Write the structure tokens for this entry.
Amino acid sequence: MGVPGDGLRTSSNDSRADISDSPVSTAVASNSDTSRAAQLVQDKPKKSWKSYLWDTLDKSPEERRFLFKLDTVLLTFASLGYFIKYLDQININNAFVSGMKEDLGLFGNELNYMQVCWTVGYVLGEIPSNILLTRIRPSIWIPACEVTWAVLTILLAKCQTTTQIYVLRFFIGLAESTFYPGMQYIIGSWYRKDELAKRSCIFHASGALGTMFSGYLMSAVYHLNGVGGYKGWQWLFIIDTVISLPIAIAGFFVLPDVPEITRAWYFTADDIALAQKRMQLEGRANRAPFTKAKFKKIFSSWHIYALVALYIFFNNGGGGGQPAFQIWLKSKGYPIEAVNSYPTITAAITVVTTLIYAWSSDTIFRGARWPPIVFSGLMNIFVFASLAAWNIPDGWKWACYFLIGFGGGISGLTFAWAHEICGEDNEERAIVTGAMNEMAYVVQAWLPLLIWQQVESPRYPKGNLTMVFIAAALIGTTFLIRFLHQREKAAKKVLYDEVDE
């Protein structure tokens, strides 16, 4: 969140001189455009009851038109891209319980190793990718990586050995590592505080939709078993690529980069000036060179350590992406269609709660991010404590597996919080958001091997109990960040008041 004086300190365009990937004229608005933008954008957006429905309803007609264009293109591409990312990430679980296990003789912990290979690739790529996004055009880098993982996905259909799957999963994870932290960085470069949580959470919810669709798709393509000489699980990988590739290619033409270098064909000069002015008022810094002093500042701040810890606890606290529900259903003798379809209800609950968290954070809680995060942690404690006990009625287990969806909807809030905390330094914002996702998956690379072992399914005694402690750590870290951020804002206010005097 910007503080008094932020607009003055971040309005300089000196950093543009360091950007060599496009002519400056594509990004820098004229003085008249800038002056007009200053008249159209409120320093502190006024709110009425209409903002409880959608935040643009209280803004000027010009700003509403700009945000309509931005939402239509950026949110649509981000959501579709995250949808296909999750489609191509989670498909290995659906394939595993739909015949791949038996066809390839995967009766040990091979599924764990497949997930670890993907995670290792994902981890290695995230921070380097986010650093690259501050130097080259996102509209080139992100779609290129999408095309890469889409093509690699179809190759999984031809795998005959676990080694082939391990290698492909590693490179799919490496290519996918660009998307989520990269798009969170881009979203944080366009939206203001009162708009950010909703967009970030809408974007995140599309991942849950990808999980749902993968289950439905597997249930459908399972009936293609034998068609063209391919098994049903092989058809899943083929169709996933057919869906993913057109969306990936579209990114080259529609992704708007960031306001200071955008050359999006659907924005006018007035739109660009408006976008740049909005970020100045928000105190969100433009791109600047990496220096030794900058790295020292970033890694000596509490921001990167506390926010990374928060996301580690979130990302590893909802079951770690393990198909525990599916494996339990299969152990109970449910047919393949049910094993793939019923868990999509959990994903649907995640979608609904994600949107509830976003709207309540922006409206009822007046921009505070911590209340929904604490609530989701409390829900996880209840759910996983019940599953850790295990000797409970089956109806209770069904309820618990569904209620896990309440813990999966806060990712967008954590990133919105990070954008606000790190808004005064563009490079810090890129590194912190990249590190949040990366370190969460560093933990996910080894933790499932210890607590979610396939040979302990479907009970997973160590996994469910560990989730209870992780949820408690999530709540504690949330309160710590709230305290540190409040203290930091108070110190800055005192400093700026002294400068004004």
The chain has 20 helices and no strands. Residues 1-28 have pLDDT under 50 and may be disordered. Residues 54-283+295-495 form a domain with the Growth Hormone; Chain: A; fold (CATH 1.20.1250.20).
